Batch of 2 targets.
Target 1
Amino acid sequence: MNFEFTQEETAFRKEVEDFTQRELPDDWDERAFYWPGGYGTMPTFEAEYKEFCDQFNRKLGRRGWLSIGWPLEYGGMNSTMKQAILDDVLTYYRAPAAEISTVISGPTILQAASEEMKQKWLPKIAAGEVRMWLGYSEPNAGSDLASIKTRAVEDGDELIVNGQKIWSTSAHIADYAWLLAKTDPDAPKHAGATLMLVDNKSPGITIRPIENICGIHSFNEVFFDDVRVPKENIVGEMNQGFYCVMLALQYERLFVGTGAFRRVLEELIGYVKATTSNGRPLCEDPLIRNRLAEMAVEIEVMNGFYWKTAWMIDQGLIPELEASVSKMFATELSRTLAGTAMEILGLYGQIERGSRWAQLNGRISIGYMDSISGPIGAGTSEVQRGIIATRGLGLPRR
Amino acid sequence: MNYNLSEEQKILKKAAHDFLANECPKEQVRQVEEGEQGYSEDLWRKMADLGWMGLIIPETYGGIGGSFLDLTILLEEMGYNICPGPFIPTVVLGSLPILLAGSEKLKAQLLPQIAGGQKIITLALSEIDAGYEAGSVNVTARPDGNGYTIDGTKLFVPYAHVADHIICVARTRESADPKQGISLFVLDAESTGMSCSLLKTLGGDKQCELVFNGAHVAGENVIGNADEGWTTVEETLQKAAIAASAEMIGGAQAVMDMALQYARERTQFNHPIGSFQAIQHHFADMWADINGSRNLLYKTAWKISEGLNADIEVAMTKARVGKTYRRVTILGHQIFGGIGFTKEHDMHLYHKRSIVGDLSFGSADFHYGKIARQLGL
């Protein structure tokens, strides 16, 4: 056993730290509200940061950091560990980090798509020139993804798509849909769907905003009316969509914003040391000390799952259990951390950003709301527990 | 990073697992726990023959010279099979102070006998206030010419009733800093002025009350320098906390494995109960709990083996593993239902171990306090 990062990995962490500190605006800490494990507060959502986020992303791309986990022949570094280090550092600074095109589309194209598709799309993804949104969920297909109703019908060299997607995070700021649609409605439930790339500018696409409970426009509902998609945009084979969706799941579930958990803990420690209540510093209160210590332990446990999962992927092992546990554990810790932070801040916990009385920039009130999203999005905690028990531990399905 | 065990460690793990499954069946565990002695001499000898008692004792002193991580792996298997006896007292609490600070003479005299399984040794540390801090040490040792005279009461001393030697932690000097003025003494169990009685405790392990009433100990039996013993105790306690954590993780894994087998076989409503989501989710939680804690345990044991500072990791590990074992045991009970609440079922053996393990060497709150200090609070 060995729990040390290699010299190369340590040097890489330093390089990312230096880059991030240099590239983020001086007032970024006051402006970025990303809550660890949440899906509703990423900085990319907010219109005023879009330009900055696009530029930041392209700079990551120029360094080859959007394709770190890919094989060398496609311009990658073949290292999930480094990918994990990058995400850990970026999320610590609440910088724009992992997104659909790099975390889901890239790895899936690498595993399932034709060489032609790889040549066309991978360089754009690696350069940070293309953003995607995940077109999976529908009003009546959430955890039960196989129940999707959106239809794609073949018409010559094209597919014609009709239907509706919802909870489409970032659809309003992305360039392409990473869309799952039914192509064979007569096939068994877990077959007959096809994965495809759809240009957001295609005629027939209507995107309507959904404001989340943090007051941020992160979601959308997206309508497809006779949208024409060239067949060359099909990812993998026709009717193999569910298989393709499974390919990147373990990879996707790895990225939970580990660095931002550490950051919040540090900020809470700073807060209780600097804040006096009833004539004594909060940091002397044994209950507060215990709670922060417990958070430190649980964050360490989350990190244990995180690094081990990354290591397993690099070893060619399939972290079926680990990836699901990693996602479930981190997002549930996201809620616990928010609850702990709220209680430590007391009445100040409710004050929002922008108020002169806001503590920690008001990020606890918004973070507390966002922490609701973690165990719901990207496969609910209940779905993860089901995967762990049936696929991981072999318990019988019903 | 590398999360794989070495080939030698894999062999050790497998061998220990198989050996205990054969040589330490649950009927024997029950028998031993119900008896007064608290261990099987026959099993103890066989374990010694396998080199377990000398696993972390250097070869110079008759041991195997293995790493602390090796010991962790062995203890996980011992915990899996709830192997009863004074193993941690002898191998960690007893031999480490001698190894860390003892004179060459003490080492040469005691360590080979410990490694060979001929001697059982334990540490008398806790007292009436049941703490693990230096300020809790109030048993006194006063110079008496050619040595010291020890007076006072020690509590929760593991397996003192079967030990050949007792290491007593005593105060030799009053000091503003409670960490100063503490010394360690090796006493023969037959010493006069010392009486031992078994405590009536919940678990199947054996703990004792040890009353010192003018017990004499020779000056050459001081471990290390007089008045400067606390750092040795601290280092020993850290390793004991991790040793206990390793046993607990093994025990938690055993509970989950037992419950999994039951959930596949037990049928209600015409289906195995393991097919119900409520039960499946319990298993997902157990798996996450155990493996999250195990990752932490291995990292800590690895750091200790490498000689790196592991102060915060030790506290994190002990705090969390104790909670993990208790949570997993409670879920195990929930899955077994009524049968798990009977004496004939094995669940209670594990449940009791989880409580003893959690309380020993500092429970979660104690270690949270240590973590808070390390976080700069």
Target 2
Amino acid sequence: MIERDDRREGAGRGVGPAVSDEGRKPRSAAHEIERYGALFAERTRVMKSSAMRDLMALTARDDLISFSGGLPDTSTFAPGFFTELMGRVATGSVAKALQYGPTEGLADVREAIALVMEAEGMTVDPDSILATSGGQQALDLVCKILIDPGDVIIAEAPTYPGAVPTFCSYQADVIQIPLDRDGMQIEKLREALALLDSEGRRPKFIYTIPNFHNPAGVTMSLERRHELLRIAGEREVLVLEDNPYGLLRYEGDPLPTLYSLDSDFVLYTGTFSKILSPGVRIGWLVAPAPVLRQLVLGKGSADLCSSSISQYFIAEYFQAGPWIDYVRSLSELYRRRRDVMLDALAEHFPREATWTHPQGGLFVWATLPDYIDTTDLLARAIEERVAFVPGRAAYVDGRGGSSMRLNFSGVSEDEIREGMRRLGEVVREQVALYSTLTGQAPADRRGASGQGAQPGTAATDERMADVLPLSRKRAG
Amino acid sequence: MSRVAVLKGGRSLERQVSLKSGARVEESLRRLGHEVLELDVDVELVNRLSADRPDVAFVVLHGRDGEDGTVQELLEVLGIPYTGSRVSACIRASDKVLAKHAMRDAGIPTPDFFAFSETAFKGLGAAQALPAISSRLSFPLVIKPASQGSALGIKFARSATDVPTALVAAFSYDRKVLLERYVAGRELAISILEDSGRPWALPIVEAVPEQESFYDFESRYEIGRTRFVCPADLDAVLALKAQSIALDAFNLLGCSVFARVDLMLDAETAELYVLEVNPIPGLTETSLLPQAADAAGIGFDDLIARILAAATV
């Protein structure tokens, strides 16, 4: 073995492959690693690939029932209608659809957006709307114009998993405020703000998903909406209201959006993703004029404009007729799927588990006993060909380890039943194993009576509350 | 020039790493002038191999089915020459429990351990033995699935109260788990490569985590998370000893052509311990075997050419 060392001509015992390679083999693999590694910006340190991401990549397989997506069911859109709409784009606007468009978005699309917002009780001037490339770009643009490294963003705990990498990539200091059944706990928010005050800091914005929260499935109460806005007004802090699912309500009466209650300190973002198609990649932002001007500049520098083809498609779609009917048909479909999932949870999950009862949206948030790590559980679940999003993805600070996000909108009723049966099996197996290991008697399985959802909901509230109010992570 | 089927991907939890490794190997094989068949292995594997009849199968699978002898057995049945270790060595090396027993019996140092199957707990009341296990090994313990190749499912137990949770996690990956004494110290990776039919230890790579206290799954495959030092800054006698132990482990398990042996150098006692032997180590941009070969003056293409040339039926 030592002979091998003798043949290492010129490879000194220096520190690091780059040193030992210098001047000898310019294209060596090790040298390239060091070279690229040194070029990456500081912010990429938090854009990490994770074990979870590798696990999630396995959930894309066809032979697996996946509750991990946030997918609307686009198979419900009639192919003939799509052909008709694109035909009109072709005959009426082909040159423009293939051309760059205005950064703010097509006038017709901004009018369509105003219509959608009107359906949720908001009156908005199309000129104050910026069309974005999906709701995800809206989050990115808001960070782009507001966040310097180390600035504070307040979010909910848990929060939208897709927002975590965005906030982190701008090196924000993210503070997560726990949710309960009525949304963000305002008292905890006040405590966090007071603590920040004592450090001489204040957040740039408060990020909230008031309706049918992703991933928690809860809805912010009217009282809390007013309180949040009062705080924002008093402190002159912006609120970023993310409302992708507001129109997908399956029970109860709609609550006014934050934007409809106070437009001075609210940045509002919506999307066509859940009411029409995520494939068109069109969302939007509404903001006070000075903020909007910056957002437009930010978007210009990011991608000049969103896809013209998509925007002409949307324009034709809204021209064609009652868009709200499609939303209603989706709501009906998803309501049934939600009910099937809630029933399946009651039937297959053990007594120790809790979960939320969403009045709309796409997700149920389930929490298992704290001795079960849902990232590890996912590995086992994939073996049984079923998948979900581990709760840790919804936190910046490693919490959420025993929770999971379950999507019901993108999975058929039969698949929900079968997938939840498999998942329940795996969970119960782990509960039983833990009982064996600790000598505790396994708890009785919840009966199939369907009455389980309510206790599940109540207990989840406690669990959500049982977290540190000011746990934070300096991203970067 | 040969027609080479690159077997990659599959259903293992290390699929992504395998795909990255596979892509690098394919590029290299093409540079070497070979015809490459890319095979992301699935239920069609045998059909495709039977139809395409490659001259050689280059196996870049990690974890279950790929590294544990399953695919190798199929290739033997089909009579297709393949790279790396043979079936029996893959079985021994990929099962950490088998490997550790063999090493302990042969006097190769490996951290003290106990291993249990799920049935021992379910059917034989092994839970009652946990206090005894804990006192025999002393905390902290590392608890890991027997066959998982990456760091997924590896947990620390700092005290007895951590053990049940860690076991539940480890049993998510395998029906058999290992409770192992934790060795605090430096992590050394020693890659072995055969030359003229004889295995040689390549220069030692030390993995130095940048942030995490533990050399975890995340930092293992990503640029910038772990600093690799090659050759490791070690006393010459100690380096020789480590390489010698690694070669002993390679030979004991019957590995062939190439492998990577992971060792711990105890920070207090300066004793060396073999953690595991990887019969198909990663071949990604940040993988340790290519780095070690590079430090020995063997470029990536040269490495791939050597592995390919040593493929047999």
